[in-house]
Design goal:
Elements lengths: L1 H6 L13 E6 L10 H9 L6 E6 L5 E6 L6 E6 L13 E7 L4 H11 L5 E8 L5 H8 L4 E3 L12 H11 L3 E4 L8 H6 L4 E5 L13 H11 L3 E2 L2 E4 L9 E4 L2 E2 L6 H24 L3 E3 L5 E3 L10
Parallel strand pairs: 5-6, 5-8, 6-7, 8-9
Antiparallel strand pairs: 1-2, 1-4, 3-4, 9-11, 10-13, 11-12, 14-15
Length: 307
């Protein structure tokens, strides 16, 4: 919105849809007019004339836009930076598809991190297992495209695996992120996106994982087992539930008098931060694979350290 306000006096009122790409604007020198108070005001407002002023907007295209100032007919040039690369790192922004089945709190934290510049990527589509879930409601509020998958009796508008893959190809999706998605991912998608699909699970896998282990059921099982530690796991997705290679984990202590709800709340807080950290590393191309097939993350501060 600030970008639109800054350009409203120089360009046609075409909207700038979001705030991620870096723009550089060079404003013209105002024509001095001692007899006009408005000219003095204009000169004061644009004391930075002939300097480049930057602001952020989401990637659109790489081009030069020339607009005319209707007040004095001088041009304001808007140089739109590449929609493929971050100007400082030279790494291309990644396109993300997120899957949800419920409230979508992890999806929200991912989306907000993209908007805030923490993640070098953008959520380009949300896939929901049902239209009425909280994650889908949030996506509608934010104007994000929504797809329903899979097609079921309760969700007749759902799409097929082939259409899902074709849509992702058309959107040029780089990574697929499962954020509380309870359905099994189709083999077609796994084959189309090898080593590119991540899931987050609310226990320290391989413990308390597999079909039927989700949500509050996991936390109840952890407490009942007497385990002293739990926490979220982020892993790559294969053809089975919760069996893909582990990428990151974070330990959360189980307290003696914990209820499942209390434990779930503490684990969820760690899920939000851990998932954003991992996606940040993946989008910045700081993930590598050991010779034995284990994925590891390179430290941003010290490139020689891995975790």
């Amino acid at each position: 919105m600030e970008a639109q306000r800054l350009l409203s006096g120089f360009c046609s009122p075409s909207p700038i849809p979001n705030a991620r790409t870096q723009y550089f604007v060079r404003f013209p020198s105002p024509s001095p007019s001692p007899s006009s108070s408005s000219s003095s005001s204009s000169a004061a407002s644009f004391a930075q004339s002939h300097r480049w002023v930057s602001f952020k907007a989401r990637p659109l295209s790489t081009k030069l836009i020339q607009c005319r100032n209707t007040a004095d007919t001088e041009r304001a040039e808007v140089v739109v930076s590449s929609d493929k690369q971050d100007l400082t790192s030279g790494i291309r922004r990644k396109k993300l598809a997120v899957f949800v089945s419920g409230g979508g709190s992890n999806f929200r934290s991912i989306h907000e991190a993209c908007l805030n510049g923490l993640i070098l990527g953008d959520v380009v589509v949300l896939v929901a297992s049902k239209q009425g879930c909280g994650g889908a409601d949030y996506a509608r509020e934010k104007g994000l495209p929504i797809m329903v998958f899979p097609k079921t009796k309760l969700e007749p508008d759902g799409i097929s695996p082939a259409d899902l893959v074709a849509t992702f190809r058309g959107l040029e999706v780089d990574f697929v992120l499962l954020a509380g998605y309870l359905k099994l991912i189709p083999v077609e998608l796994i084959q189309a996106y090898p080593r590119s699909i991540l899931n987050i699970h609310p226990s320290l896998l391989p413990a308390f994982g597999g079909k039927g282990h989700y949500g509050m059921k996991v936390h109840k099982a952890v407490i009942a087992s007497g385990a002293r530690y739990t926490g979220p796991t982020i892993h790559f997705v294969d053809e089975h539930y919760d069996t893909g290679r582990i990428l990151a984990q974070r330990v959360v202590p189980v307290l003696a008098k914990d209820t499942a709800e209390e434990l779930a709340a503490r684990v969820l807080r760690e899920e939000h931060s851990l998932y954003v950290e991992v996606i940040t590393a993946v989008c910045e191309e700081r993930m590598a694979w050991r010779d034995d097939g284990v994925p590891i993350i390179r430290s941003k501060e010290n490139p020689n350290e891995y975790s």
